[in-house]
């Protein structure tokens, strides 16, 4: 295959893969026990993490969104009983958020979705192809992190 054809195929595959994963994730959420959550809300729950308490600023920074945008989403998650919020006594301006028991169940469910997805991919590959896939994805990740200054 000449280079231009490879570029076209790789572009098509990456775009399709990205879109397919988003569709599969959205469908899995809607079919699961936490069907009242959006993909975005699931990602917020994932960012907060299980058994952790974080400031709104930390979560917003991790997700690369504004605190105002996060506040709107957190208000919805509190109403749905996935997250709780409290201010610290030493500085009432600091707002801490953490998952409720219901939120931890959603976190576990979403983590299981990712585990199942990866296991289903790996089980179909011979070990040599698995190694090649991981190497290629690491190189792509490094490339995007360096080219688009995503290193944190």
Automatic annotation (TrEMBL):
Q: Which PROSITE patterns match?
A: HTH_MARR_2 (PS50995)
Look up keyword Magnesium and say if it applies: no
Q: Tell me which Pfam families the record gives.
A: MarR
InterPro entries in the cross-refs:
HTH_MarR-typ, WH-like_DNA-bd_sf, WH_DNA-bd_sf
Q: What keywords would UniProt list here?
A: DNA-binding, Transcription, Transcription regulation
The record places domain HTH marR-type at 7-142
Q: Which residues form a coiled coil?
A: none
Q: Which domain of life is it from?
A: Bacteria
What PANTHER family does this protein map onto?
Answer: TRANSCRIPTIONAL REGULATOR, MARR, TRANSCRIPTIONAL REPRESSOR OF EMRAB OPERON
What protein am I looking at? Winged helix-turn-helix transcriptional regulator
The record lists the organism as Clostridium saudiense
């Amino acid at each position: 295959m000449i280079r231009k054809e490879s570029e076209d195929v790789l572009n098509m595959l990456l775009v399709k893969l990205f879109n397919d994963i988003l569709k599969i994730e959205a469908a899995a959420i809607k079919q699961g026990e936490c069907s009242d959550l959006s993909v975005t809300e699931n990602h917020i729950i994932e960012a907060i993490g299980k058994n952790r308490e974080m400031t709104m600023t930390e979560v917003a920074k991790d997700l690369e969104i504004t605190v105002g945008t996060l506040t709107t989403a957190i208000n919805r998650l509190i109403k749905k009983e996935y997250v709780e919020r409290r201010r610290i006594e030493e500085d009432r301006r600091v707002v801490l958020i953490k998952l409720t028991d219901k939120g931890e169940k959603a976190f576990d469910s979403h983590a299981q979705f990712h585990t199942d997805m990866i296991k289903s991919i790996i089980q179909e590959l011979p070990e040599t192809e698995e190694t090649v896939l991981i190497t290629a994805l690491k190189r792509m990740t490094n490339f995007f992190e360096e080219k688009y200054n995503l290193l944190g």
